[in-house]
Amino acid sequence: MTTIARTEADFAGRFRLGAVLGSGAEATVYRATDLSTGRPAAVKIFRKPAEGSLQRREVLIQSRIRHRHIVALTGHGGSAAGPGQTDYAALELVEGRSLRAVLSSGAADPALAAAWLRCLLKALMHIHARGIVHHDIKPSNILIPHTPDGQVSGEAKLADFGIATSSAVPSASSGSGTAHYMSPEQAAGAEAGTAGDIYSLGLVALECLTGSRPFPGTPLESMVARTLRPPQVPATVDRRWARLITAMTTLDPAERATARQALRLLRRALPPA
User: Fold this and answer.
1) What is the per-residue pLDDT across 82-99, written as a single tens digit (0 to 9) for each?
2) Active site residue 109
C-alpha cells in the first residue's frame, strides 16, 4: 500500500503536493502544482494500486471524456510497484466548492439551480452517448466554480468516475451508488443504466430547490422508500420544475426522460435568464 505524506515536496517527479482537498476509502485528493507547467492541479492518489482495479477502470473511462462540464483528467501514472499500475490521476483543479457545501446553507436560487442542471444534463448527454454510466450522481460529486469575485457561479462540473461503467471497459460491477441518491432499480439490487443517472440527478435538482434530501432517514429507510413511491415534490416548488422532476424520477426507468429530453423540457419551461 502506497502512502503519500502531505508534506512531501514532490510526487511522481512531476507534482508538488499541497493541502488535502478531500479523502475517501479509495483515494486522497491533493491540491498540487504541476512542476512541468507551473499550473495548479488536483492529484488523486489511490491507496491500492492494482491492475484491473476500480481505479484503473476509472482512469480508462475518464481518459475517454472531454467536456466542459466534466472535471478533466489531465494525466495519470504508475509507481515502481509494477508496470501499468495506476497510482494517481491528475485532474483539472476547480476553484470553488462542491454542491454539497453550497447547499449546506439551504436551498439554492431556482435560477442558479436551473443553470447547474443545464450543465449537468449536457454532461450526461455526453457520457451516455459514449456508453458511460456515472452511477454516483450526488451533490458531493458536483463541483461549482467560483466567479472571479468569489461568488457561486452558474457553472457546474461532474466529478468522480470511481464506480462508473462503460461499454468500452469490461467490468463485473454495475456500480453501487450512494444510498440517498440511488435510483429505485439500484436500490432493489438490479442493474442500472443511463436512466439511473437521470433519476439521481432529479433528486439532486429537487434538493437544490428545497434544501433537503427528498428521501431522508437512514440509508436503508431511504432506499426502501424510493422503491415504493416517487419523491414528493412540495407545493412550494414551481409547477414547471415539478413537471421536470417528475419526468426525471418516474419509478419505471423505461418511462424516465433521457438527458436530451430532460434538457429540452428544461429549456422550454425554464429558459435562461
Assistant:
1) 454 557 899 999 999 999
2) no
Distance CA 49, CA 69 (A): 28
Q: How far is CA 237 from CA 110, 208, 232, 268, 269, in A?
A: 9, 11, 11, 17, 13
All cell numbers assigned to 252 = 419505471
Buried b vs exposed e over 228-262: b needs ≥16 C-beta within 10 Å? eebbebeeebeeebbebbebbbbeebeebbbbeeb
* Burial 115-138, CB ≥16 within 10 A → b, else e: bbbbbbbbbbbbbbeeebbbbbbb
Are 230 and 251 within 8 A, CB to CB? Answer: yes
Q: Which of 87, 109, 136, 197 is catalytic?
A: 136
Task: Specify the length of the chain in residues.
Answer: 273
Do 41 and 34 contact (CB within 8 A), yes or no? yes
Q: CA quadruple 65, 180, 234, 113: dihedral positive or negative?
A: negative
> Which pLDDT does position 272 carry in this prediction?
75
C-alpha cell at 53: 482495479
Distance of alpha carbon 133 from alpha carbon 174, whole angstroms = 9
For 45, the grid coordinates are 492518489
Q: What is the set of domains in the chain, with CATH numbers? A: 15-91 (3.30.200.20), 96-269 (1.10.510.10)
Give the separation between CA 128 and CA 138, rounded to whole angstroms.
17
**What pTM, to 2 d.p., does this model score?**
0.89
Confidence (pLDDT) at 86: 55
Q: Tens digit of pLDDT for each residue in 212-261?
A: 999 888 888 888 888 888 999 999 999 999 999 999 999 999 999 999 99
Q: Which amino acid is at 82?
A: G
